[in-house]
Amino acid sequence: MSPQIIALLLEALKETAVMVGVSGALAAVFGIPLGVILVVTDRGHVVQNLVVNRVLGAIVNAARSTPFIILMVAIIPLTRMIVGTSIGTAAAIVPLSLAAIPFAARLVETALREVDAGLIEAAQSMGASPLQIIRKVLLPEAWPGIVAGLTITLVSLIGYSAMAGAVGGGGLGDLGIRYGYQRFQPEVMIAVVVVLIVMVQAVQTAGDMLARRMNKRNLSRERG
């Protein structure tokens, strides 16, 4: 590959990293609380509120069932209102975040539901408030599963970001479409695929290591 293509590849990698990093951070900031609410407002839980639970559940399901490409196109007016444009890296962050938040919320919900109910009952018997149960029982016990869920979210975002390149989202997907496909340069397409695979492997490995470390910490605390 020419130095110009290598420079474009590095720039596209940076754009993809920004898209995935920002949208992943927003998914964690909003997805974790949303997942907590979906659990604690369910039937028989610490702050049961079936109306809130069903409404939020329906919204999350509707967002998750919308294909990402359709979501990107459907929210173009919202994207323009937030960032002032519908193309480029900044514009792609909006639909990426909206796709990732409900996805992460369901994974966080799954991790929280795996917490032993006996621990929650023991905390309630000692007079712990719902907030204390969430902060000192649910979240600490579920952190390994939450980290694993956020890792899956980041891996999915890498794929979504490449898809966003097909509609002007920038990043590696855009580079692969413009140079690898439209300009018939297969080596560029191969390079883009290799870089995406390396990114996925790196994120998955780091997430698995962090989840295992947190799990060992929880086991050590329980034995102690």
From TrEMBL:
InterPro entries the UniProt entry points to = AA_ABC_Transporter_Permease, MetI-like, MetI-like_sf
**GO cellular component, as recorded:** plasma membrane
| Gene3D superfamilies per the UniProt record, alphabetical | MetI-like
Keywords, A to Z, come to: Cell membrane, Membrane, Transmembrane, Transmembrane helix, Transport
Please list the coiled coil stretches: none
TM helices/strands, residue ranges:
17-40, 52-76, 82-105, 142-168, 188-211
Name a biological process GO annotation.
D-methionine transmembrane transport
Q: Give the signal peptide range.
A: none
Keyword Lipoprotein listed: no
Q: Which PROSITE patterns match?
A: ABC_TM1
Q: Which residues form the ABC transmembrane type-1 domain?
A: 13-207
A Pfam family hit: BPD_transp_1
In the record, the note on similarity to other proteins reads: Belongs to the binding-protein-dependent transport system permease family. CysTW subfamily.
Q: Which PANTHER family match?
A: ABC TRANSPORTER PERMEASE, D-METHIONINE TRANSPORT SYSTEM PERMEASE PROTEIN METI-RELATED
Put simply, this protein is called Methionine ABC transporter permease protein
Lineage, opening ranks = Bacteria, Pseudomonadati, Pseudomonadota, Alphaproteobacteria, Rhodospirillales
